[in-house]
Amino acid sequence: MYDFSRCKLCATNAASPTYKLKKTTVYACAACGFHFIDHLDTMPSGTSGDASPALDQKAWDYIEGKLPANGNQLRQNLLLVKRHLSLSGTHCLDIGAGAGLFAHLLAEAGASVHGIEPQGVFREFAQRKFGIELNGETIDARHWQEGFAGYFDLVTLWDVLEHVNFPAETLRNAYNVTKPGGWLFLDTPRRDALFYRIGEWSYRASGGTNPLFLESLYSPLPFRHKQMFTLRQLLQLVETIGFSVVRVHSSPFRPQNKIVLVCRKP
Ligand SMILES: [Zn+2]
């Protein structure tokens, strides 16, 4: 059982319950300012014994219905990647591959692609829709850390860091499987955004009864949002791990605000 007074970012015992939402509580760290909720996912055990629900017609229609919107974003992400490297012949790893669309786009661009997706229902979709075999073992598994150490030219984490149990560990593991000179691309919601600050202000002003947007930004359900970074926290983390930051895209004012980072392993 994890002690949530221990900060998931700086590992000091300086975190305390700060925003009590309907279904979860946001802890804030007094030492580094990190925000995270009091919930961790129980990870399914790799490709076998996965207790995920089956991919029935309803699940298929749901996932397929979301593809166009997700596809637009992922095509933008692909353009960003292509601005920095030529994909043909590269080894790529998409962590948190979901329905497999980005892995599919990478393969179309001539890359040799691996993908990680812990939810069996998405892996099955990716297999049937795109013919892509995603792996259910998460990036901390020996399969990746020993079998693919320093291997990938490109590692992507699209909308992953806010979902995983321990984002610093995920980034460290991503670093380990990246080749020297290889690239890491990621995006994640930005906490030091105007709408989040308004939510914090409203929570305090209402004595905790009206957290506004904070309520919808976090969830204790499996694979939902567990933490959000400020731009400064995330930059500091990737640099501490060893990446060089090549490019940052972010604006604190748009509601659908994200941090997009382009990083390189020296
Ligand atoms: Zn901290």
TrEMBL record:
It comes from Geomobilimonas luticola. GO terms for biological process: methylation. Keywords: Methyltransferase, Transferase. The keyword Transferase applies. The keyword tRNA processing does not apply. Coiled coil: none annotated. It holds the Pfam family Methyltransf_23. GO terms for molecular function: methyltransferase activity. InterPro entries: SAM-dependent_MTases_sf. This is Methyltransferase domain-containing protein. Gene3D superfamilies: Vaccinia Virus protein VP39. CDD domains: AdoMet_MTases (cd02440).
